């Protein structure tokens, strides 16, 4: 997963900052959890919390170690990475994740956007863990402002449908996607975590929002 941007206000430190912010919130939560909590299923088909964390740690360590062989981050590659960690203790899985969240940011900054989508994906997966555990802050928290900016940048890279998002508590609208010059952008009114759910294909049960000019299925392709 890669991201590039031509935005003059682009901040190369954003991806690393998002990872470190999430590290400081997530890792203590993981350390305190019982081993049984790692077996709980997440919204990612076929993956438990442990699978998600093993994937996240391996994905970030590929950045740290510059290991990008053909097919990397494909479903098959992800499954192999998870299988390679099958004999690890949960604490070792968390150790690797913590290291990746600490060290990958500097490398992403030097890549000038080409790896920022990885950071956003890891942050979303942290939300998957919180959601699976019924913890507050899923797809939100202190990293949300950086995550929203990365989401906007990512939506332009994949040429998503244009959307004007009026987000609760945010003074300025967030613009996503690529305008086509002919049709007005779709309109979203709601909170930021729900917007994240829409764009990443996460469950929308219990959410409230307004969406006009686009279908949910048109938005949930941000990581396809």
Could you characterize what this model shows?
The chain is α+β, with helices and mostly antiparallel strands and about 220 residues long. Helices cover about 50% and strands about 10% of the residues. The protein has eight helices and four strands, in the order H-H-H-H-H-H-E-E-E-H-E-H. A four-stranded mixed sheet has the order 2-1-3-4. Strand 1 and strand 2 form a beta hairpin. Helix 1 packs parallel to helix 5, helix 2 packs across helix 4 and helix 2 packs antiparallel against helix 5. About 40% of the residues are buried. The N terminus is likely disordered.
Structural Rg: 17 Å
Percent strand: 5-15%
User: Strand arrangement, largest sheet?
Assistant: 2-1-3-4
Dominant shape: globular
Kindly name the structural category: alpha+beta
Straight-line N-to-C gap: 9 Å
Identify low-pLDDT runs. Answer: 1-7
Which series of helices and strands comes N to C?
HHHHHHEEEHEH
Largest β sheet strand count, sense and barrel closure: 4 strands, mixed
The percentage helix is 40-55%
Structure summary:
The chain is built from 8 helices and 4 strands; from the N terminus they run ααααααβββαβα. The protein is α+β, with helices and mostly antiparallel strands and 224 residues long.
